[in-house]
Amino acid sequence: xxxxxxxxxxxxxxxxxxxxxxxxxxxxxxxxxxxxxxxxxxxxxxxxxxxxxxxxxxxxxxxxxxxxxxxxxxxxxxxxxxxxxxxxxx
Length: 90
What we know:
Blueprint: E1 2-10, E2 15-21, E3 25-33, E4 46-52, E5 57-60, E6 64-66, E7 71-76, E8 81-84, E9 87-89
Parallel strand pairs: 1-3, 2-4, 3-5, 3-6, 4-7, 5-8
Antiparallel strand pairs: 8-9
């Protein structure tokens, strides 16, 4: 289990991928996918978070940002969970 009391940020100015699988769990305060690239000459980000497999989950205790200036994708396979506070996407 990865437990981060801060941000999990992917693809801020480049490309990032997060795989959570095989019962893996991530707990973070904030999640951000492809949120950078707003200034002159800055590259827009691209990010994908994939949650797959029985018991796999990403729990956010704060906010979730996706695709601010780039392309962000969240994929959740059957039996995986994405949770923000008390809301769930299963």
